[in-house]
Design a protein that fits this description.
- This protein has about 80 residues and is mainly alpha-helical.
- It has one domain.
- The protein is about 80% helix and about 0% strand.
- Helix 1 packs across helix 2.
- The longest helix has 28 residues.
- The N and C termini lie close together (about 10 Å).
Length: about 80
């Protein structure tokens, strides 16, 4: 069940991501094809990079530090959820 949920999230994320970044690319230049579209695609990649950096910063802030997490895992390996 978890694998199916993970796959569904992956597929939805990809679909929504293509729609959002495609919209950004077209909105930046108004062109769907040709040299002007390349500039719009560059803008979409810039937005994607900013989103990736933001997600990385959130992960650094939200995830536990290895120095606190690993000792707990060594004491109780069964505490680590596996699917």
């Amino acid at each position: 069940m978890l694998s199916g949920l993970n796959t569904t999230g992956h597929e939805l994320g990809g679909t929504i991501g293509i729609a959002v970044f495609g919209t950004i690319a077209v909105a930046a230049t108004g062109a769907i094809a040709g040299p002007a579209a390349a500039e719009g695609i560059g803008n979409a990649f810039l937005v994607a990079a900013i989103v990736a950096v933001g997600a990385g910063l959130v992960a650094v802030a939200a995830l536990p530090r290895a120095s606190r997490f690993l000792p707990k895992l060594r004491l109780s390996p069964q505490a680590m959820p596996m699917h």
